[in-house]
Amino acid sequence: MIWNRYKIKGAGLLETVVSTSILSVILVGTMGILMTSQSSVQDGLVRGSLESQAQFLIERITTELRRADTSSLIVASDRMQFQIIQDFTLDGPQKASDLITYQLLTSPTNHIIRKVGNNTIVLADNVTGAFTKTEMMGYWKIKVDLILTKTFVSQRFRQTITTQKQINTEVFIPTLKK
Description:
Blueprint: H1 2-5, H2 13-66, E1 74-76, E2 79-82, E3 85-89, E4 92-95, E5 100-105, E6 111-116, E7 119-125, E8 127-136, E9 139-154, E10 159-174
Antiparallel strand pairs: 1-2, 2-5, 3-4, 5-6, 6-7, 8-9, 9-10
């Protein structure tokens, strides 16, 4: 009995191996969850950026299209040109002096640009789509179909995140006959 009193008690090799393996399984699971959540956050940031860019594009294009003079309106699949009506007088609508052009460029990368006079602004990169114009019972129906694409490469986790946002909107403009 005296001998049991001085026996050193502690973890044996088997207990150490079991506890180490349980701890490593917990750590691997935790790292997996962290990597997934990090990827989700990055994806959410890219989607949010794309959403705000799409909203900006639609608001800008539709606001100007609603004020467009139909006599100056030219719509092709890759561009729209028009002048904005500034005011109405007895002689008819008074147009803006500069022509506004929205154009989809495919070279070197897919852009949508807005050109007024000599000023050209790139509104968005990685944009594909088309513009169409049809006449319906005294109205021009201008349809804008665009697809915005954003790609984010995570160097830390070696993942590529690609997100697309599709924009489909129609603007109806009354045809003004003099």
